[in-house]
């Protein structure tokens, strides 16, 4: 598939890594590269460089630029600072993209194993059905608990999915969804949630490969092992 000039990509890298216990997890090295570089390398050439926006913490934006220029020379990536919450960061990214964008992919930089094939499948779903959200069917037994961790019930997992990124939407619809979110003061944890809150149907795209989100220090060693095995 050739470069899509109507696609924009927002890579969200503005978190504080509070649960990681150390420096910013996106700057940790996974063998050859820092965590965030993998997403840039995976998704580069799906759209023009200047339609890829990296949303960074304000204190680290120059370090992200330096490392991106070191490992991906002559790039034309665009940078902006993150907001208080994740959705604020996404909104800032949306406002940074050029006017010609029709479709937008949102991806968490903490998921370094997502590949170009998955992005294209989400984009195809967006073109055909209105959006495409990477997700996995839940295979584990699921329990609902009270605050004291006592099990209240077992949850039927038949139609349960764990949602991932990338998530691809028509940019006008996502902007509209976030405008409504801000007006309603609702809380969501991902972009698909903003779309649901605004009444848009959301369509999942099965993600067949491991697409772990790095959260804890132990995840770094696990992902290193996965990269080595590939």
Q: Could you give the order of strands across the largest sheet?
A: 5-4-1-6-10-7-11
Strand content: 15-25%
The level of helicity is: 25-40%
Number of strands: 11
- What is the global morphology? globular
How many discrete structural domains? 1
Question: Mean pLDDT, nearest integer?
Answer: 94
What is the ordering of alpha helices and beta strands?
A: EEEHEHEHEHEEEEHHEH
Largest sheet: 7 strands, mixed
**End-to-end CA span:** 23 Å
Q: Gyration radius, to the nearest Å? A: 18 Å
Level-2 CATH architecture: Alpha-Beta Complex
CATH topology: Spore Coat Polysaccharide Biosynthesis Protein SpsA, Chain A
Low-confidence stretches: none
Specify the structural class. alpha/beta
CATH superfamily: Spore Coat Polysaccharide Biosynthesis Protein SpsA, Chain A
């Amino acid at each position: 598939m050739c470069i899509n000039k109507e696609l924009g990509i927002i890579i969200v890298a503005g978190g504080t890594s509070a649960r990681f216990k150390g420096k910013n997890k996106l700057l940790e090295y996974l063998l050859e590269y820092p965590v965030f570089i993998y997403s840039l390398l995976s998704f580069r050439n799906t759209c023009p460089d200047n339609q890829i926006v990296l949303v960074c913490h304000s204190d680290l934006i120059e370090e992200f630029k330096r490392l991106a220029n070191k490992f991906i020379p002559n790039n034309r990536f665009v940078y902006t600072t993150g907001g208080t919450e994740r959705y604020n960061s996404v909104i800032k990214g949306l406002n940074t993209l050029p006017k010609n964008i029709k479709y937008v992919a949102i991806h968490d930089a903490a998921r370094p194993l997502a590949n170009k094939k998955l992005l294209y499948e989400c984009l195809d779903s967006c073109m055909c059905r209105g959006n495409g959200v990477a997700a996995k069917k839940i295979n584990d037994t699921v329990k609902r608990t009270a605050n004291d961790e006592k099990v209240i019930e077992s949850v039927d997992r038949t139609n349960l999915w764990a949602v991932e990124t990338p998530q691809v939407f028509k940019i006008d619809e996502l902007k509209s969804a976030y405008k409504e979110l801000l007006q309603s003061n609702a809380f969501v944890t991902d972009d698909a949630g903003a779309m649901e809150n605004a009444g848009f149907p959301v369509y999942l795209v099965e993600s067949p490969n491991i697409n772990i989100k790095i959260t804890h220090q132990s995840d770094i060693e696990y992902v290193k092992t996965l990269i080595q095995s590939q």
